[in-house]
Design goal:
By secondary structure, the chain is an alpha+beta fold. The two termini are 28 Å apart. Helix content is 36%, strand content 30%. Strands 1-2-3-4-5-6-8-7 form an eight-stranded mixed β-sheet, with helices on both faces. It has one domain: Gcn5-related N-acetyltransferase (GNAT) (Aminopeptidase). The longest helix is centred in the first third of the chain and has 18 residues, at 42-59. It is built from six helices and eight strands. The relative contact order is 0.15. The protein has helices at residues 19-26, 29-32, 42-59, 106-121, 136-145, 167-172, and strands spanning 4-5, 9-13, 63-68, 74-82, 91-97, 126-132, 148-155, 158-166.
């Protein structure tokens, strides 16, 4: 399992020890608004950790906890996973942050590290991202990453805005 580092973050694959930090984030209604529409219960977060640990074993990629260097706290989470959780689909990048860490550039910082991982380590030919159509902050990160808007498609039981980029887009960004 791969640990990634950035200037301000350490991205660690989910472990049981991350429960408190992940639950703290996932129980915030504003964080989950565009993801599930409701805050997580402790059982939801525990089940998520178990699913993610299994995916790391099966695919060698899944969700990371974003651990802030300065505080050593989990401030977010992000993933490289198969779109729609189906291995037949291309890879997807995604993220979420604690509300008190919104707007500070952490999502973009982590997204660059995760995209590098997808293209360099997993040899992904392309990378997708989806978000609720009203989630303008997430769409902003996708655009900042160099992704292009591709339209509205149905993913995760909702009509989502879809963005993507390919290996050439990624390697030519600067």
């Amino acid at each position: 399992m791969t640990i990634l580092t950035t200037e301000r973050l350490r991205l660690e694959p989910f472990t049981d020890s991350h429960f408190e930090g992940l639950y703290r984030m996932n129980r915030e209604p504003e964080v989950m608004r565009y993801i599930t529409g409701k805050p997580d219960t402790p059982e939801d977060t525990l089940a998520m950790i178990e699913r993610v640990k299994a995916r790391w074993l099966e695919f060698a990629h899944s969700w990371w906890s974003f651990i802030e260097h300065d505080s050593n706290e989990i401030i977010g989470a992000g993933c490289i996973q198969h779109l729609g959780r189906d291995p037949a689909n291309p890879l997807e990048i995604g993220w979420r942050l604690r509300k008190d860490k919104w707007g500070l550039g952490y999502a973009s910082e982590a997204a660059v590290a995760m995209a590098d991982f997808a293209f360099d380590k997993l040899n992904a030919p392309e990378l997708y991202a989806v978000c609720h159509q009203e989630n303008l902050a997430s769409a902003h990160v996708m655009k900042k990453l160099g992704m292009q808007y591709r339209g509205i498609q149905r993913w995760y039981d909702m009509d989502t805005a879809v963005y993507s980029m390919d290996r050439t887009d990624w390697s030519s960004r600067v």
